[in-house]
Amino acid sequence: MNEEFVEKVIQVNRVSKKTTGGNKIGFSVLVVVGDKKGQVGVGLGKSADVSSAIKKASSYARKHLISVPIRNTSIPYEVRIKKGAAKIIIKPAPPGTGIRAGGAVRAVVEACGIRDIVSKILGTDNQASNVYATFEALKRLHTYDTAK
């Protein structure tokens, strides 16, 4: 594992499948990976044991990183998004505000390296849905200062 990436396990789900021989137990793990410099990724790993599910999720997240524009320790502008049942509002905040966000949003934003942000989770309490919605919101951010 690279020291430059921060890895945060969001959710560990124990799942079971009925078979003729009984129950087959497995785990699904949701992981957020970021470099605290504007790159973040989300991965879901499934395996018979937790540690290999975490490795799979982390590996997927690292392969699917996105770049997030950070302006003065915050985001450039407000984003409102609805993905499935999850509704997320993220707003830029002045330096010194800190991260004013709930668990799922906080994990993604911290891994990304954003230090000042205000957010609100509406809709569902499902952490996985909220993580994916936040990821989608950050994906939609663009900077328009290309002409210099």
Can you tell me about this structure?
It is a single chain. The chain has three helices and eight strands. It is of the alpha+beta class and 148 residues long. It has a four-stranded antiparallel sheet with strand order 1-2-3-4. Strands 5-6-8-7 form a four-stranded mixed sheet. The chain has helices at residues 50-63, 103-112, 127-139, and strands at residues 6-19, 22-34, 39-47, 66-67, 79-83, 86-92, 99-100, 117-122. The model has no long low-confidence stretch (mean pLDDT 91).
Offer a few descriptive terms.
148 residues; alpha+beta; Double Stranded RNA Binding Domain; Ribosomal Protein S5, domain 2; 2 domains; four-stranded antiparallel sheet; four-stranded mixed sheet; 8 strands; Ribosomal_uS5_N; ribosomal protein
What's the layout of helices and strands?
Blueprint: E1 6-19, E2 22-34, E3 39-47, H1 50-63, E4 66-67, E5 79-83, E6 86-92, E7 99-100, H2 103-112, E8 117-122, H3 127-139
Parallel strand pairs: 7-8
Antiparallel strand pairs: 1-2, 2-3, 3-4, 5-6, 6-8
Helix pairs in contact: 2-3
Count of distinct structural domains: 2
Measured between the Cα atoms of the first and last residue, the distance is 38 Å
Average per-residue pLDDT, rounded, comes to: 91
Query: How many whole angstroms does the radius of gyration measure?
Result: 17 Å
What level of helicity do the residues show?
25-40%
Widest sheet: strand order?
1-2-3-4
The helix/strand order is EEEHEEEEHEH
Largest sheet: 4 strands, antiparallel
Strand element count: 8
Structural class, by secondary structure, is alpha+beta
CATH architecture of the largest domain: 2-Layer Sandwich
* Overall spatial form: elongated
Q: How is the CATH topology of the largest domain named? A: Ribosomal Protein S5, domain 2
Percentage of residues in strands: 35-45%
Number of helices: 3
Low-confidence stretches: none
Please identify the oligomeric state: single chain
What CATH first level of the largest domain would be assigned? Alpha Beta
